Amino acid sequence: MRIRFTSLIVLLSAVCLLSSCLKDDDDTDYTYYGDTGLSAFSLGTMNRYLHTKTAAGKDSVYKLTYVGSAYKFTIDQLGHQIYNTDSLPYGTDVKHVIASVTAVNNGIIYLKSATSDSLAFYSNTDSIDFSTPRTLRVVSQDGKRYVDYTVKLNVRTVPAGTISWQKKTDNAQLAQLDNVHALSAGSYVYVFGLLNGQTVGYSSGIYDGETWTPMSGSFSARASFVTKGNALFALDNGTVYSSSDNGQSWTAVATNSALKRLVAASSAHLYALTANGYSSVTGIAEAADDGRTWTNDDIDDNAMMLPDDEVSYTAIPVRTNDSIEQVMIVGRCSAANDIYARTWTKLDDYSSQPVASPWTYVDNSGESNYSLGEIPSLTVTAFGGYPVALISNGSYISSLLQSRDSGLAWEASGKTLPDGLTSAIGKLTMTTDSEGSLWIISDGSVWKE
After folding, report:
1. Distance, CA of 271 to CA of 309 (rounded, Å)
2. From-to residues of CATH 2.60.40 in the chain
């Protein structure tokens, strides 16, 4: 294929002439290759925009970001096509994309206009509109040959009101666990559960979900876990542990006999129930230094109503202030042999001038049509900017419930669940990863939204 634009030939001829003059000056040989092609293509940080509704029922949009380079692109050298087989997440903005492209033998890369045959020099700092397939042209150094590649970004599409589910695996190791609990931090999803009287954990990358790696060691049956930033935290028999390597090693950071169970974490704090030994719950303590120092937090009701069984939590940024998160814990009160869900919330203000607020009991337990009601098995996570919940009694799984008013009322979200989803009591859990995708683990089956 011979290049058709004369101006480039003139330019390259001038470069060759200049290099000839340079050769006379410094006696250096320059080689200009006549062969080229594209050897690598990857994406930078990607934006994802999802639609939801406010508590008042108004449409709202929130933004997430994710690492685009985690999605691998195939370069078909025969068909001159570049594409991703693993589709980008639903809601990805493909009109403003930063891409990194590498050419063989330092070929010159051009981007063809989406509306004409004009060409512009490609820059890895320029935003490109990939809402339609685009053409990249790479020209050999000697200017005699070029190759055109068609680039297509595949993005998952989801009908309104539904969720498109991908079944990742049926994992025999996860299926053996009881009282499972899923968490996510950074680029990983974690599942903890009981096996032979001990708590063990497994991890998988958020771009994987098929391979699950066992964590090192094991904890007692009473151990509890949360995530903060990219780190894991555990509480076991009064000792707080942290791990920054996906549970492959754990470091003891504090010992405090008053701590009973980790129940939540925000971007700024860890939260744990306090108790007299393992008897009645006495309150909630918080730590602002990754679990080393604990202080009692204020509560506005009877501490006996704090949940310590089947506990899940969410920490969702307040839409009007990104330095305040609404933290929610939901679960049963074992001391009272409770069968109903108990919900507590707190505004965690970590701005430069924070305003302290207590933990507040959301009094909606019992048989109200808007409460979570009886919870033989419960899992709660944040999805779409709001808390969502699933309840299982072993033969029945609820629809995906959602609360838009801080846990006061729970209603069907209208989002679909995986076909044929079933679960025994204690075998169902869910979490939301750092890209906003929902994961459900049920009897060892792993599903990702």
Report:
1. 15
2. 6-17+38-152
CA angle 381, 387, 390 (to 5 degrees): 60
Nearest CA to 50 out of 92, 88, 5, 100 is that of 92
Q: What angle do CA 316, 384, 389 make, to 5 degrees?
A: 80
pLDDT of residue 374 exceeding 90: no
What is residue 18's DSSP assignment?
Answer: H
Decide if pLDDT at 26 tops 70.
no
Segments of the chain assigned to CATH 2.120.10.80? 166-448
Supply the DSSP symbol for 174: H
Instruction: Provide the pairing of β-strand 146-152 with 81-84.
Output: parallel
Closest CA to 57 of 386, 300, 380, 352: 386
| Domain 166-448 CATH assignment equals 2.120.10.80 | yes
Q: For the chain, what is the total number of helices (H) and then of strands (E)?
A: 2, 35
Given a cut of 60, is residue 11 above it in pLDDT? no
At 20, phi and psi to the nearest 5?
Answer: -65, -40
pLDDT digits (tens, 9 = 90+) for 392-445: 988 889 999 999 888 888 998 888 899 888 888 999 999 999 888 899 999 999
Start-to-end C-alpha separation, the chain = 45
E strand or H helix at 183, and its extent?
strand 178-185
Q: What is the pLDDT of residues 60-97, one digit of tens each?
A: 777 888 889 988 999 999 989 999 988 888 889 999 99
Q: φ and ψ at 173, to 5 degrees?
A: -65, -45
What is the CATH topology of the domain spanning 6-17+38-152? Immunoglobulin-like (2.60.40)
Pairing of strands 146-152, 178-185: unpaired
CB 41 within 8 A of CB 184: no
